Amino acid sequence: LALKGSNYAGLLERHRIHTKNVEHVVDSLRNERIEVRLVKRREYNEETVRWADAVISAGGDGTMLLAASKVFDKFKPVIGVNTDPERSEGHLCLPVRYTHSFPEALQKLYRGEFRWQWRQRIRLYLEGTGINPIPVDLHEQQLSQEQHSRAHINERFQDQRSDISGPHLLPVRALNEVFIGESLSSRYAMCSVLFRENFKSCKPSFKFSLHRASYYEISVDDGPWEKQKSSGLNVCTGTGSKAWSYNINKIAHQAVEEILKIAKKHGSLNMPLNTELVQKVTNDYNESLLYSPEEPKMFFSIREPIVNRVFSSSQQRGFSSKVCVRSRCWDACMVVDGGTSFEFNDGAIASIMIDTEDALCTVLLEE
Amino acid sequence: LALKGSNYAGLLERHRIHTKNVEHVVDSLRNERIEVRLVKRREYNEETVRWADAVISAGGDGTMLLAASKVFDKFKPVIGVNTDPERSEGHLCLPVRYTHSFPEALQKLYRGEFRWQWRQRIRLYLEGTGINPIPVDLHEQQLSQEQHSRAHINERFQDQRSDISGPHLLPVRALNEVFIGESLSSRYAMCSVLFRENFKSCKPSFKFSLHRASYYEISVDDGPWEKQKSSGLNVCTGTGSKAWSYNINKIAHQAVEEILKIAKKHGSLNMPLNTELVQKVTNDYNESLLYSPEEPKMFFSIREPIVNRVFSSSQQRGFSSKVCVRSRCWDACMVVDGGTSFEFNDGAIASIMIDTEDALCTVLLEE
């Protein structure tokens, strides 16, 4: 790692800090005689969730997403502790100071100095020919290249196998967003392995990425179907409006400045175009992209829409209660919270909406 | 296909039209006693290019990119005929009317009623530990899952194998753009095949996509190195400024309207905010993203930059003569014209620039 310019010492240090922070949280809980099961990613499953009265994630936002992904009970609190503040923004976690003084957080919980917060989540129905409702756990795939059984997934679908044509409610709830787009297909290549032996590379993996535009049809709030071609469609919650959706839609100071310059010229405006005005406009615009995690509405945005003779895009983004998408993709998928993936190929139809029964229960401590 | 809602008859018809158009071009050439070799994608190679005085691509823009990808001689003209006008914009091809009256184009060429156009292209140097200068042809990968020899690629590197630490000039020239970003890793999954048997799906492929931000460091025109995190970096030519780059950077009418509304409010502007003004500003802004294919300059844009405590982004886009990128990615690649891919992982350094010797020779017919 050091040869490559990576900071090995830094990685080790971050691991040390994380481990120490986890110990602190566990000790704080046990000191209050709370029974604690400490599980790692691979051991975290629905049985563990059933056993617990509450779930605490210790990591960054990604770990919180994983923790939430196995909780379907709207009365089971999930609390995030950010054990990696140098690296994670911790949007989904308690404020960073509780990482080092977790007993303070516990005291507030005991004294009722908090309120419940329900983060709305998105549910997905899938139908059409050739669909595959078996999700792929992307984190698992990364960790273990050979997986010979996924019994826990298999169970869930025992009763659904007989009828695969009707809409399936998928066994996931998106806390941040659902992203639909062409996945980048990969194929095993014998040739690459042959050549790599010559170059002393030991990586057996092989990834070929081809940016391909996604073709699909979309209907918002049961409106008319519209054909679209883009780099993908993002449908987020209030929680997710701060995440990838924000990065897709936010505008740069540089762009706002150019737009205002052009407007000034065209509109013959007497407008002092100073940095302060540009900054205010930029901030206001970007802030308008965010909304409360508790609002039962979704925000859809089309990423890099392609507009030409064939494809139009009446609205590039907006709020909605329901989004339906019919895939015309060759090799696409729906990715939930960056961690679970479903095939979404030509002919499949997804219906995307929020049901308040799916909300995730978290806490907001009083400050 | 029909069961899935795909338009089989439409696909067949497009193929018929394409075939007819190709015959028309070939016949027109042979009628002038020009010797023609008609090759398909897989047969198109550097020996064929060497044999030819000129290369004509018959297809859409993608076919033109493929044709150009094997031409390294700046005096070998490459001309595109758009045989699929319903589906391809044909930016890189002759105007559509010549598709059905190719003899007219030939006459103009004979009479000198044209000018040469040199489309500048980008070259790439790669260095650092663990790099793999063997490119992967993504179109080939799609067509044939088993490839046992890539002798033509092998040849090119015979002399370079002894020294893999110095900067390698890669055997490609980007006509549209180079895109650098995390590829979406895929792994073979035994489990997916087991379950799919139950669902009558016959696809042996398996793609798991995980949107992961790309980490890298960038230096523009030999300026200071800057750490960045984003959805990827796009560096294009004038030709490519109309392609993916345009879709990354263009702004929607809806966004301009919102920005001007906010500006009007903050600046207490007496500005009539009508659709006409918004449209003018939108069009001007979007047009400023385009420039001549013959200009020897590159346009870089950072896709969805992530700005927080750790990562900054002083400039989201701009013109440059040279861009250097050091990968801090886990599993990334550089994709040239959406068709050729190179690994670009932690420690690799790419230097990206235009050399006018690499220009592609095309023609602009007089109208």
TrEMBL record, chains A, B:
- Establish whether keyword Chloroplast is in the entry: no
Q: Which GO terms describe its molecular function?
A: NAD+ kinase activity
Species annotation: Pelecanus crispus (Dalmatian pelican)
Matching SUPFAM superfamilies: NAD kinase/diacylglycerol kinase-like (SSF111331)
Q: What is this protein called?
A: NAD(+) kinase
According to the UniProt record, one GO cellular component term is: mitochondrion
* InterPro entries given in the database record: ATP-NAD_kinase_N (IPR017438), ATP-NAD_kinase_PpnK-typ_C (IPR017437), NAD/diacylglycerol_kinase_sf (IPR016064), NADK (IPR002504), NADK2_mit (IPR012355)
Look up the EC number in the record and give it: 2.7.1.23
- Which domain of life does this protein belong to? Eukaryota
Stated family:
Belongs to the NAD kinase family.
What top-level class of enzyme does the UniProt entry assign? Answer: transferase
